[in-house]
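Record pair follows.
FIRST:
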Amino acid sequence: MATFSASDGTRLAYRTYGEGEPVVCIPGGPADSRYLGDLGGLSVHRRLIVSDLRGTGRSAVPEDVSTYRCDRLVDDVEALRRHLGLARTDLLGHSAGANIAVQYAARHPSRVGRLALIAPGARAVGIDITGEERRALARLRSGEPWFPGAFAALEAITRGTGRDWAAVDPFFYGRWDAAAREHHAASRPDNPEAVALFGAEGAFDPAATRAALAGFGAPVLLLAGEFDLNSPPRSTAAFAGLFPDAALVVQEGAGHCPWVDDAGRFVEAVAAFLG
């Protein structure tokens, strides 16, 4: 585990996997980045620089907790790029981390070589996902033994009458097996305050971000899981439409962490894009 100093002096940590040209990887959550691992073996093809967001994993808690806000976290990505001595870098963001990645691309377009957004959260660009859309996607899993209880919990959550989030966990994986359960347990956010303040007032300016991305010239990959309720294929396709040069991949049989569901297929798609 290596560290560097953010612009406000907060000590931030990152993990390195593999060798070769670097790809800076931004986790979702905000959560300890260990849940990304080496992204199913992507480190065979590229050197992965996997950051722990401030206040998570082994990164320090900042003195000013307002810096947990998504737009403020962009500064930490830039500090990491400078620390690594890179003129520009390929960038990969997963889930909520995609919101950081696209705001970085909007603010520092010349610093990004290629941009990969995996099961991307879309709050930064103002793409909404309705409860009905999530329920319709969930019904594709109706043959699973865990479906009745999980779907009842999902209906209650999307209608605002329930909060049994643990019951809907199986929907986030293509297979709810022992490996998925183990991975999910390791990916829970470890700093509730960081989660609560990530989307605080001022964190997102969708109109400005969309305008900036319309002129973003670097290649972009958006990869969605077929069954992902968090980042459905439809919303990810709409996200792709905001870029001049974007490719959309929908990974069959995958959920929100597609490298867990089928590492080979995931790595093949992302490695081909990154080169």
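SECOND:
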Amino acid sequence: MPNLDTTKDLFADLVDTVARALAEDCGTGDITAELIDIETTANAAVITREKAVICGRPWVTEVFRQLDPSLTLDWQVDDGDLVAPNQLLFTVTGHARQILTGERTALNFLQTLSGTATRTRHYSDLIKHTQTRLLDTRKTLPGLRLAQKYAVACGGGLNHRIGLFDAFLIKENHIQACGSITRAIQRARQLHPGCKVEVEVENMPEFQEALIAQPDWIMLDNFTLTDMRDAVSQVPATIKLEASGGIESETDLVAIAETGVHFVSIGALTKHCQAVDLSMRFR
């Protein structure tokens, strides 16, 4: 289920995402930019004020392309690069009005996605001594699902399912509505035999039932470390184990990874995103 290829859909979606963001900010026009003569040109530099993993180049480039294709961007970093405070990220040269109109939208994308990538890299580094990998979730900012999943990948994490359409994740309410874990898994196989099937379990008896029903993945929801280790010792090579919930601290994350589960899914990668501090200055 990880390593889903989002590239094709991502860049098809990018143009519309940027257009909506610009429309939201510009409305009927940037009245402050009208203070500047239409022929005035400028060169602006964007730096980071803090250490970060950069992500968002395609969105920034598309912002300025939509506003004025004649603007020239000169990037000094790539997505996924670790940068230091006060490091130059890129310059943009051309009509001053369009640079200023695009500044906030461009930086919003770059700050937000870099924040996601930076948090992901931090968490990934904490567990790099284990075989466990970080997964994202569907707890993303509305309208930025693919963008944030791209940012997670830039930070060293893995993409889980993209949405409700590309893989099964059978949770407590699905199980109750279907009647049992076994029945839900069987129904999933019948409906979409080509899709991965994951089921969430909340205790060891449910885990045992899931093992017999043979999904592709089992999510251990809020399991104790002891029960996680027990599950790892029993799971066959054909089934992957994902731990979720109960991660209140970085210490918890490390302890969970050290149980030997294949994956840990963390909604905080995308929903608790803290924007990276960036600055644009005319030179």
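COMMENT: The CA atoms of residues 25 and 104 lie 8 Å apart.
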